[in-house]
Amino acid sequence: MEAARRYASRGQNSVSGWLAVTAARTIITLADVQEHLGIEGAACEIGVYYGRLFILLCTLLRTEERAFGIDLFEQAPDSEYGLPTRAHVFASLGRHGIAPQRVSLMACDSMTLRAIDVKSAVGAVRLFSVDGGHTAENAAHDLDIAADSVCEGGLVILDDFFNPQWPGVAEGTCRFMAKTSGALSPVAIAGSRFIFARGDAEPYRRALIGKESTVFGQRVITVPEPTMRTRLMGTALWREIRSRPVGHIARRALQWLP
């Protein structure tokens, strides 16, 4: 887990894309629960882009586990966000210590993908990120793939459900939840990520601290964004001075921050 924590706090800044520290830390916490529960499986992401979240998932893999990433890559038309290629992603994986033989990347439209394709590539999945096409049809289809690919106790990490720029994600998720009747249970909202579990979600909910609410008829934990105080107290400088006299002075000053 230490490699994942280092990547979440510092390493991810070298990779293009979007990943809130809150979401990254929440995923690490839930992966730690999986380890304690003995849940094994691969990592997978639909919508890898340059690999910012995908690399985090790879750092959470154990020795025999592998990762599978799906994106348009070279098939994509030019866009305002840039045109990532598989070479870009493999280069970033290498910089963060991920061996290329543990990773498979497929260039395709996820609407042509089936769960059997995922399982054939890496077996059952325990960490599955859905961040592909943001239409209602794409979101519903990709969630279907994820739900059928994850093992019991596996997690599905959905991006942009609450993003007002992409209402299709929320619509597609609602379609999926209405159709599948509890295939996935909501666990947490962290940053822009809405996290679900296949099977018993309570061990995951108990591991998190945040505001409790009800979504899709089930309990869900909203993990708060870090405050300025917690951000400062998470720095290397704070760890260096916290036990010194200057640290006691700083502690009194920090109590006035939110």
In a nutshell, what does this entry contain?
The chain has 258 residues and is of the alpha/beta class. 41% of the residues lie in helices and 21% in strands.
Q: How would you sum up this structure, described in words?
A:
This protein is α/β, with parallel strands linked by helices. It has two domains: 2-224, Vaccinia Virus protein VP39 (Rossmann fold, 3-Layer(aba) Sandwich), CATH 3.40.50.150; 227-258, no CATH class. The protein is 41% helix and 21% strand. The chain contains eleven helices and nine strands. The protein has helices at residues 2-9, 21-37, 52-59, 86-95, 115-122, 136-149, 167-180, 202-206, 228-233, 236-241, 245-254, and strands at 42-46, 67-71, 103-107, 125-130, 150-159, 185-190, 193-197, 211-215, 218-223. It has a nine-stranded mixed beta sheet, with helices on both faces. β2 (67-71), α4 (86-95) and β3 form a beta-alpha-beta unit. The longest helix is centred in the first third of the chain and has 17 residues, at 21-37. The two termini are 29 Å apart.
